[in-house]
Specification:
- With 162 residues, the protein is of the alpha/beta class.
- It has a single domain, classed as Periplasmic binding protein-like II (D-Maltodextrin-Binding Protein, domain 2, 3-Layer(aba) Sandwich).
- It contains 6 helices and 9 strands; from the N terminus they run H-H-E-E-E-H-E-H-E-E-E-E-E-H-H.
- The strands form 4 sheets. The protein has a 3-stranded parallel beta sheet with strand order 4-1-5, with helices on both faces. It has a two-stranded antiparallel sheet with strand order 2-3.
- The protein is globular and about 40 Å long.
Length: 162
């Protein structure tokens, strides 16, 4: 009976390679192309400047995240509607710009868990947006954010002093 259990367990687990998966392979595409396509919604202090010289809390965080993937960030400043449309068409890997957990307009995207909570109110809980179904990518991003919590708070405080 034990042998049957072990055999069945191995059989089930053998089908669990590469989980969680991305429906459109975002994480693998970023790793292969070494490019992270980012839609930036201008919202000081989170993201501001230009595509050639972006600045802000989230710019710094995602620059570090891209570096951790050996990818180069490709910034594109857009309106929230344009970013949402491009994300739906899979022309972006990530959207940032002071998005919060209570944002009703970001229905076409999946949101990370809050990476910075300024209060218990969802309007003060900051998130990033990715394409729906890109579970491997979002988990990789959330692990990065969790591992860098203290640095993120420090970046936020530095940006507040500017």
């Amino acid at each position: 009976m034990f042998k049957v259990f072990v055999f069945m367990s191995l059989l089930v687990l053998s089908g669990c390679d590469n989980y969680p998966r991305d429906t459109e392979a975002t994480l693998q595409t970023v790793l292969d192309s070494q490019r992270l396509r980012i839609g930036v919604i201008e919202h000081k202090p989170w993201a501001y400047g230009s595509s050639l010289n972006p600045e802000g809390v989230e710019i710094r965080i995602i620059s570090d995240f891209a570096r951790s993937l050996t990818a180069r960030p490709q910034w594109e400043f857009l309106s929230e509607a344009e970013a949402s449309d491009k994300m739906e068409l899979r022309k972006l890997d990530l959207v940032l710009g002071g998005l919060t957990a209570d944002n009703p307009r970001i229905k076409k995207m999946a949101l990370t868990r809050p990476y910075l909570k300024l209060s218990d109110d969802k309007k003060d809980q900051h998130v990033f947006a990715v394409s729906r179904g890109e579970n491997g990518f979002i988990i990789t991003l959330e692990k990065f954010l969790k591992a860098h919590e203290k640095e993120i708070v420090a970046i936020y405080k530095q940006e507040q002093r500017k």
